[in-house]
Fold each of these.
Amino acid sequence: MTDIAIVAYAARQQAEVEENELEMIAPLIEQVRSETGLGPDDIDFTCSGSSDFLAGAAFSFVLTLDATRPVPPIVESHVEMDGAWALYEAWVKLQIGEAKTALVYGYGKSSPGSLRDVLATQLDPYTVAPLWPDAFGIAGLQARLMLDAGDVTERDLAEVAARSLADAADNPNAVRAGAHSIDELLAEPYLHDPLRAHDCPARADGGAAVILAADDVARRVCERPAWIRAIDHRMDVHHFGVRDPRRARSAELAAQAVGVTSDKVDVAELDAPFSHQEPLLVRALGLDAANTRINPSGGSLTGHVMMAAGLVRLGEAATRVHRGDADRAVAHATSGPWLQQNLVAVLEGD
Amino acid sequence: MTAPLDPVAPPITLPPSLRDVEPVQRVRTPFRLDYEVSAGRSMAAYLRAMKEKRILGERCPVTGQVFVPPRGVTPTSGLVTTELVELPDRGYVESFCVTRVPIPGRDDLQLPYVSAWIVLDGASVGFLGLVADIPPEEVRLGLRVQAVWRPDDELGETADNIKYWAPTGEPDVEITSYEYVGQPGEAP
Amino acid sequence: MADDTVLRGHVTLEYPFTRSTGPVVGAFLTGLREGVIVGIRRADGSVLVPPCEYDPETAEPLTEIVEVADTGVVTSWCWNGAPRERQPFTSPYAWALITLDGAATPMLHAVRVDSPAAMQTGMRVRAKWRAEREGHISDIECFVPEDAS
């Protein structure tokens, strides 16, 4: 296995971005280039993640390619997925020796459309989508099952939200932050019983850019590379009735494949857009919450960019390793209703 | 003649209530999503200039090439680009296609119509436009053309302000290369 | 002189989409048109609703379409207090996972009650059928409490 590391990361999350997607992502790409000194000629492979359904146009990702300096032609790929999966593809490219450096980015500008309705289009087109159930309603069904079964209490959910909002005060990219007591949060009305507003993702426009580098290149451009020791992703079945919404089997399998529990985890950045999904993921990944700092960035509850939230978790985890705040970190990304698809990575610093 | 393919899956069995009725084989699932998109800084400048019958491009800070419409980042640099350049509303046909079949929803297009790749004087890339006021069989590579604009009271923030491109009558441009890596702003 | 205000434009993405169903999804929709709900039997004898062509766990083709009741139990629910365009109703209602009598798996639909206070996991509901049906998931207008008039 080749040693591959995240050597640079830049992100932006903002309630509403006025520029177009290209103008939004270009400065982030320039930032990771300048941090590493790796210009367009030094990048062997480029991969991005985004969604046409957010942009309201087919092949919308082509609009942002200008930021990658595609003339003269570059080696490039795209996934209609969160940028975390673009990072996975880039990691594979580096693993098989076809590249030593990769530029990865993910972005989403959901403010022009109605994200909660856009997400209804990913549901079964014959039996579910024609009812246009919105993403918050779908998530609420999962939360109710967990509450009914005693997996969590409403107090537990408010604790996740309170901790996330407090931690987000240190994150310039957070769109929601602040100090709130549990009781304050529990006094808020339901948005979608049993979910309150703070239990739901803090929608934002924005994106993230990451540079991956192998071996000696990583050591040359980054003082303390965040080595990707293992990365894996799995997918649960599509049929709602067959899934157990109280578990994310795909997250469990991905976590086992990467060996999350084989050593201490200092920091875990988990992509839990809804508060009830954090304890679900903690259990699925086998994390010891008492000895692991969960979502020091504030997580998706305090800033959630569709198509980049997972890549942001990877970047935030890597940043803690870069800074020396963590020696071993876990990053997780999700996609689809009820945590249908999950990617898990273990990052380590020397 | 080949035998018909066997179905991959075995046939299904139905309960009594569905055995003697016409099976449903299709279902209507209409799809609609609405968006309020923002043009972005560079495209907004381009569209606003369009309303004044001005065409803007942007100059690459690395190669000096001029791209139109301006996107805010030039593909030859990957850098945020802010230098806007005004271009004339005249250029030449780099390629074209004569279409004789109608497009649904475009009853405004008179058949046959000529779509062409228009390169403005001073631009390093072309864009799609209609060529008219010339019989289709006379359209040729290198044909010099000029924009025909809508009347002033019909102008909006849209490239649709240019109804089509018409021949100027000047001698054709001699196209020697389709590479855009030549001298910036020069016709190849 | 330059106008710095954000320039916006409206875009509508709209497609008519008529989907072909195949025999299994077709059977489910035929059932709805006929006023019955069907599922499909798995190797262990349990019935999947709505039916699907291949067993999600074993990938074997499934073939036996089975009728289930149009009554069942709410296994989860979430209140939709601010319905959105294209959703079943303009006034608040609940989304629910409903396990019909005879089915092993729940299906998703709307339950129409006046307030969240009337919803409870475990409550029994029955399908309220539309008078005119065409073979569409909304042939079931919604589910209502089983003892509702």
Note: The longest strand of chain C covers residues 71-80.
Amino acid sequence: MPPVAESSLDVRADFPIFARSFDGRPLIYLDSASTSQKPAVVIEALAEHLRGHNANVHRGVYTLAQEADAAFDLAREKVAAFTGAERQATIFAKNVTEAINLVAYAWGRANVGPGDAVLITEMEHHANIVPWQVLCHERGASLRYLKLDDRGELSLEELEGELERGDVRIVAFAHVSNVLGTINPVAEMTARVRAAGAVSLVDGAQAAPHMPVDVESLGADFYGWTGHKALGPTGIGVLHARREILEGMEPFLTGGDMISSVDFQSATWNELPAKFEAGTPMIAEAVGLGAALDYLSVLGMPRVRAHEQALTAYMLERLSEVPGLRIVGPPEAESRGGLASFTIDGMHPHDVAELVNRAGVCIRAGHHCAQPLMRCLGVGATARASVGVYNDAADIDALLQALLSGREVFGLQGSRGA
Amino acid sequence: MDDLYRDYILEHYKRPRNFGELDPHDLEALEHNPLCGDELSVQIRVKDGHIEDLRFNGHGCAISQAAASIASEELKGMELERVGKLDADWMIELLGIPVSATRRKCALLNLKVVRGAVTGDASWPTGSAR
């Protein structure tokens, strides 16, 4: 067995939700790719801000408002430091979906026109497909897809071929696939994109919370990720960008806080990052995210990755014991994030998720907001188990037992020790 | 004995009645369950204002496949006018298992597609049963 115990972080006690039980069974949470659970320090930081430091930001001169300002600014500094980004080029958005829409609207409408192309990949989440579809329809541009190979990985040669056609303005792709787990070679891809004179956008939703990410060395022009998958609250996402690109862009949403001055007929724009943050921002959520990143930084992102990779290796091995179970994506843990999507012959993924829930095991089932990918894989849906810092080998064992019991309910043969 | 996955549910799931193609047919429709991406189509042959025969086609979970199979046996021979008035309660009672809120659309997809084919109104069936 892989050395799970040695790399185990043993931090479950930091997460209050694991005190819950369901029909007397403990919570076995294997859905961190959907959203992470929250440590007490995050819940407390959020509450403490609302309890003791709540005021609007960038408006008040009173002491309480200055405290809120300082807390919000500190949170942005923590976020930028976490990913090696520039503070002023670190924009808060609601989530990755909004971050990508910001780019598709504010950058896309000004830079993509008739005859141009947007290049994405077959493994994208709907959040990194639909904004580009809408942009391309509106601007008369074409939307093209990089294909997947049998391992569920992309080809740099195909990327080069697409870029050589000369019409690609932006290439948008996931850092880590939310279905396949595939870790894409981001730096190699962004270097080729930039050499071709195009712009890159990386969806880091499944990467930044789980492995060391340095946006500078990754070379992405835009890099989006979200707080709620990184032990933080919902409602706060992040868009890092190259500052000169942001400075050249018109705003996305307009209104309060993003202006420099407003006349009866026109307005001028505030400096970065305020230019892209219209209205009262997510202040308490930013404070909560800052606390989450403090927590992750103390653990150390290399340790987080090592822990989750070891658990993933163990999960791949245990899942292979289930008769009729097929895993999609790269076969080895070092090539994938902390998740495994799978199908089981004779059982629909929804039924799989329903049956393992009876053992207190939480997994996701469905198309995972990646319907084009499901079509490429030739399935309607998959089940997906994903890990976080609080999981251990016993959780994977519980999943395995629940899957085997589920097969028995369905009367499927060859249930044990295949 | 499992509350949800009862023997007759699994039996209908593994051997669904009235599944396949129906040619010729007079009415047809295709609907999706946005929750999971499952899709189900139906082809219906009409005679004297009644469903003379029908076939479902598609893929889905045990609940959605069994519901379509069980409903198909009731729908055969039914007056079109009555089909248009069938609601969610009819389907849930017919299915005879406790359907949670998250699985409700699985159970109702077949009625949605059949009503869509018969009346042109493919909205989700509603009813008092939760």
Note: Chain A touches chain B through 17 residues (CB under 8 Å).
Amino acid sequence: MTAAETGTDSGRAEPELGEGVHAALASGERPPRPSALSMALTFGWRGLLKIKHVPEQLLDVTVTPVMFVLMFTYLFGGAIAGSTGAYLEFILPGILVMSVLFTTVYSGVTLNTDVTKGVVDRFRSLPIWSPAPLVGALLGDAARYLVAGLVIVALGLVLGYRPQAGPAGVAGAIALVIVFAFALSWAFMTLGLVMRAPNAVMNTGFMLLFPLTFLSNAFVEPSTLPAALEWFVGVNPISHLITAARGLMEGDATGGEIALVLGEAAALTAIFAPLTTWLYRRA
Amino acid sequence: MTDVGLAIEASGLVKEFGDVRAVDGVDLAVRPGTVYGILGPNGAGKTTTIKMLATLLRPDGGSARVLGHDVVEAADAVRSVVSLTGQLASVDEDLTGQENLILIGRLLGYSRARARSRAGDLLDAFGLADAASRQVKNYSGGMRRRLDIAASIVVTPQLIFLDEPTTGLDPRSRSQVWDIVRALVGDGTTVLLCTQYLDEADQLAEGIAVIDRGRVIAEGTPAQLKASVGSGALRVRLLDSAQRDVAARLLAERLEVEVIREADPAAMTAPVADAGRAATALAALADADVEVADFSLGQPSLDEVFMALTGHPAEDSVGESSADREEAA
């Protein structure tokens, strides 16, 4: 009896499914192929939708830097800079850089998730400009960079940070950090395509990024460090970025400092964008 | 040699992952407007073959043309006329069903409004209208599979690759997917179907290639394949295992075949040529007061096909774990 019921049940539903599919097939005319930019923007929209549906990913990237600002300012501020206020002024640009750059690891994690879940197979079988999913993901990530940056600046303002160069200087600093973040994202997307699991990308990414951000001029004056460490901090591109961001926010950045950061960003992109695209084609 | 009339024409396709030849010289000829089945166990090279035909993997040897376009030289032309529904449901789990379809529609060139209305039509057609604004991670396996196929026909393809579309689905979802496949082919779409199930290939496909360790080991219509294997098996399980010897003797008499006693002490299996004789044999059991707990008259399983064709059972892991991993990746 039960079997017979199930039989009639599916007997009723199934022809409907078939009918609808016939109608859908009949009306699926092929539109003209969109431009590469339009495809990338569509993937950017996908990135924004993911933030909308999984807002926790923003928590991950904002809570840690907020903790850093509070901990470093009130724990070490007095000891390192004599007062918490003076130290806040010193570390805030550094933490801005750190928090946005931490976000770039997620570009690799997201891409790796797409590969392991099979979505990439769908995208790669579509007649689209092949780097569009990668470029588009970066456009979506820009929203995250912006949120991470704004959270830190807002927190700084609440705690009494007053940048000399005003809103324009802060905007300039955030823009420069985002440009560098785009470049670094390509490196983590490469990592995302060579590692086997999203967690591995996350762990390796942070293992690389933690020493690079801490062994910089973000938290201490390099002149207080042992010679070898001072040398490393001096050549670390993240130090250059922090110097330029600090300069922009304080109004004393030089053209050379900014050009150095842009040059390093261009070099990172020149190496890792083609490498990522090449790996993606054979993912 | 080149037959322009073929939808898929592959000769000597080879793909290696390290030392493993995942695909080792596969030839295929698929007529347009038909369902063609590739039947084989996990790790046999089905997914790798499909990925080469869908331009996702570059063959290490041999050549293939899909709807007249070479899969290496004219990969973009191939992508413009085919769709792929991968083994892992290739939809974005974080997005809703509707957003997934709009995404594909926009990428293929529909305007925002057209992509939205097309998504709505497809969700209706595939019985997903109620779940349109739910995240795909909350879909059942059958719903996810239907969405996946819907995503493959946002723009009507001339050929669709379906990689194990019903693996892991309940029987009802399975028959829904079969209906969809029949509707696709009824409208003239060519379907290349990978499957582990002989009955699925039998239900849908006009031609079947049986693939094992990267090679086509048999090819033909479902009827030809089954004829080479025997049409099926009667499996009987008794209420009382003490009656098995009596039952086995009765079945052997009526069916004039050898009855295989299974590991389950109350169960046995006998190959049968036609259903009528199986019914007579079951009646004989009843006459002899042998109580039957359940019985089934099934088609030969993939294992039996493999036994008949190769002399060894269909093995999932014949030291090809690395190929499996590559296929899954």
Note: Chain A has eleven helices and no strands.
